[in-house]
Design a protein that fits this description.
InterPro entries: Metal_Ion_Import_ABC, P-loop_NTPase. By secondary structure, the chain is an alpha+beta fold. It has helices spanning 2-8, 25-40, 52-58, 75-81, 83-88, and strands at residues 13-17, 44-48, 62-65, 69-73.
Length: 99
């Protein structure tokens, strides 16, 4: 409903914090595909998401932050930089979900 209100008011920015918590995998993929389509039409989407697989799949730019900025750039480069380990420790891994 909040997204519909933002679209109806012709917002320039959509800010979302963990928008798919508790949502099944198929619905999550549809939701993120919708966000990608909205972004392609010119809507800026600011997404706070802890699922790195989702971020590296759907985001056009990534900022990795944990009290400071560890990475800012292309999702393809993010995985290779080690920013996740520097920000959150070496026991972090990127998982890709195939739903």
């Amino acid at each position: 409903m909040f997204i519909a209100r933002a679209l109806a008011s012709e917002a320039d920015l959509l800010a979302l914090d963990e928008p798919t918590v508790g949502v099944d995998g198929e619905s999550r993929e549809e939701f993120y595909s919708l966000l990608r389509d909205l972004n392609a039409t010119g809507l800026t989407v600011l997404l706070i998401e802890h699922d790195i697989g989702v971020v590296t799949t759907y985001a056009t730019d990534i900022a990795c932050i944990n009290r400071q900025l560890y990475f800012d750039g292309n999702p393809d480069e993010f995985v290779e930089t080690g920013a996740l380990a520097r920000a959150y420790g070496t026991d972090q891994h990127v998982l890709q979900h195939d739903h």
